[in-house]
Amino acid sequence: MNAITREADMDATHIGEHSTHHEEHPTGIKRWLFTTNHKDIGTLYLWFSFIMFLTGGAMAMVIRAELFQPGLQLVEPNFFNQMTTVHGLIMVFGAVMPAFTGLANWLIPMMIGAPDMALPRMNNWSFWILPFAFAILLSSLFMEGGGPNFGWTFYAPLSTAYSPDSTALFVFSVHIMGISSIMGAINVIVTIVNMRAPGMSWMKLPLFVWTWLITAFLLIAVMPVLAGTVTMVLTDKFFGTSFFDAAGGGDPVMFQHIFWFFGHPEVYIMILPSFGIISAIVPAFSRKKLFGYSSMVYATASIAILSFLVWAHHMFTTGMPVFAELFFMYCTMLIAVPTGVKVFNWVATLWRGSLTFETPMLFALAFIILFTIGGFSGLMLAITPVDFQYHDTYFVVAHFHYVLVSGAIFSIIAAAYYWLPKWTGHMYSEKLGKLHFWCSVISVNVLFFPMHFLGLAGMPRRIPDYSIQFADVNQIVSIGGFAFGLSQLIFLVVVIKCIRGGEPAPSKPWDGAEGLEWTLPSPAPYHSFSTPPEVK
After folding, report:
1. Residues assigned a catalytic role
2. pTM for this model (two decimals)
């Protein structure tokens, strides 16, 4: 997550060789505003996602401070609901997705031997509309009646009949985020399909490229569904339609069907690129080829296809027919198979490898273990009769935070450590990196593991107050939360120190690393490959 300040004065041989760009690349603020360079845009995405991660994290701290003790201490219940809603929206659309898009921008052209992304101007545009989307979302918190307070899933009628007027801003910002995602996805697909180096056949693509290609198709398939959902919410609230209002012939449960048809593939959009990252890091530090490359590609594709068949497992308690409950239960359990294939392949890659435990490898190993815990609790939630007890409790919160924090976010951090020497030209401080790892991995478990027990004991989610019997465990959870939040400041220090200087990085800083990006000098030149490399 760095701004590569030295690129601006790199040797002139790399400038002007690539026809889709201007002869000169601008410096200063213009460089960032008007850039069409995939590395600059990747950097912008990564910094933006980190700022959003800290913003969403600050909201999580408000939530955990309020829940430190039973009773209402710090915030009004309505503001508490705004915090849970905006925290969720920011983490999903502002932290995780832009971070993966930033990694895609930085790495895909370098991994496939391309000079840049296929549609560089659209690339610039797809980034620069994002800060405006989140400015609109955050400004809604200051409106009369407050910001969105209906949960990030904005179920009707909470988001229609009972929502504040700022819902219009929320809808507008979600539309802009969706447009940005679709533009980014089109760019990724066109780049991978058309710009691979000679000799790079489909089954030679790095897994990160494969996972992103499949993710991009998912984005194009489901983002319009989200756009339709928020539009219906908007017209129900302000224009007198009744899509989700039973009194006017609509159906509030239809909202959940449409929302989760977007929402479940969305969950995989936030985890598939992680699989690609881990599939790059584990072989590098095991000094072995990835076990079962082609099965990993097929497993990723099957997860993507199955993700469209499981949406109603979020709705087991809405009174579906038993046949539908069985169908969605079996489809959901089926997703465990390709996911299990991936975990097996990573473990098989580790088996008898010459392992070393640098920071990227530590985060990758933590990902494998903790993501698997999240997968097991997901399997528990998939079982319909049992889900009746877990539904809308802290067990669900524990499940998806294991998948998205110790899953998606740990993989993003692992990627940052792994490719940071290539981005900045400097090695980061291994000592600080390991400190960041141990603080994060201990605190993340203190934060989320006890939530399973809160949920099993019946504590509902999204409430500002709770019964006295949950007090002790909530204190432990809140302490873990504050520790995890503070640990991320160590990461910020590591990245800034690495940008500003440090031991010069060789073009291939990790022994076992494979791929075209390691054939480039560190820091990577402004235009990666002016003549495409031959892939043998």
Report:
1. 87, 116, 152, 180-181, 264, 266, 268, 279, 313-314, 339, 342, 461
2. 0.94
